[in-house]
């Protein structure tokens, strides 16, 4: 049997610190970070769109696709904790409070965004522009379906 050493205990302590780190982000910061994350993803979507409509720069499209996937894969669902249903202090949110009641639906939409983003990275690496157009459209559709359902205005 493995002996419980000081190192094991420290390891457990470090793990529990890591897992509670997100909970320590204040509601106001959660709203700020999630808006920044989606805003950054949107900027990268805009770059891909411009490439598809104008001069195509494969490196720029790959970089943008990776940035979007990084946002999608970051676990940013953790930034929708209770207490962030409404604007907090200076941080305004356009989220509908229903999002916090519809976990299964949100998980599905978030999973669709992640899957579509990962697919876009794969296709961007292939350099097949027609396929990139399709994959890009699918990512945009996942953005839209969540906005239609859970974003105010
Ligand atoms: C984008 C962006 C969104 C989505 C959405 C798709 O590029 O910023 O929020 O695509 O407009 O309909």
State the helix count: 5
Strand count:
0
Which strand-content bin applies to the residues?
A: under 5%
Q: List SSEs in N-to-C order.
A: HHHHH
Largest sheet: none
Estimate the helix proportion, in percent. Answer: 55-70%
- Structural class comes to mainly alpha
- The end-to-end distance, rounded to whole angstroms, is 59 Å
What's the shape? Answer: elongated
Cα-atom radius of gyration: 19 Å
Mean pLDDT: 89
Give the names of the bound compounds.
ascorbic acid
| Low-pLDDT residue spans | 1-18
Summarize the structure.
With 153 residues, this protein is mainly alpha-helical. 67% of the residues lie in helices and 0% in strands.
Q: Which key features would you list for this structure?
A:
153 residues; mainly alpha; 5 helices; binds ascorbic acid
Task: Write structural notes for this entry.
The protein is an all-alpha fold and 153 residues long. It contains 5 helices and no strands. The protein has helices at residues 6-20, 27-53, 58-72, 103-126, 129-150. Helix 2 (27-53) packs antiparallel against helix 3, helix 2 (27-53) packs antiparallel against helix 5 (129-150) and helix 4 (103-126) packs antiparallel against helix 5 (129-150). It is elongated. The N and C termini lie far apart (59 Å). The structure holds ascorbic acid. Ascorbic acid binds next to helix 2 and helix 5.
Helix-strand layout with pairing:
Elements: H1 6-20, H2 27-53, H3 58-72, H4 103-126, H5 129-150
Helix pairs in contact: 2-3, 2-5, 3-4, 4-5
């Amino acid at each position: 049997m493995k002996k419980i050493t000081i190192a094991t205990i420290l390891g457990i302590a470090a793990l529990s610190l890591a897992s509670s780190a997100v909970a320590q982000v204040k509601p106001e910061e959660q709203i700020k970070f999630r808006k920044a994350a989606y805003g950054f993803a949107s900027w990268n979507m805009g770059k891909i769109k411009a490439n598809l409509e104008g001069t195509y720069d494969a490196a720029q499209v790959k970089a943008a696709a990776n940035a979007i996937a990084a946002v999608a894969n970051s676990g940013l669902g953790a930034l929708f904790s209770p207490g962030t249903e409404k604007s907090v202090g200076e941080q305004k949110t356009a989220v509908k409070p229903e999002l916090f009641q519809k976990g299964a639906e949100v998980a599905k939409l978030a999973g669709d965004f992640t899957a579509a983003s990962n697919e876009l990275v794969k296709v961007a690496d292939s350099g097949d522009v027609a396929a990139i157009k399709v994959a890009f459209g699918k990512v945009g559709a996942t953005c839209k379906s969540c906005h239609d359902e859970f974003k105010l205005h």
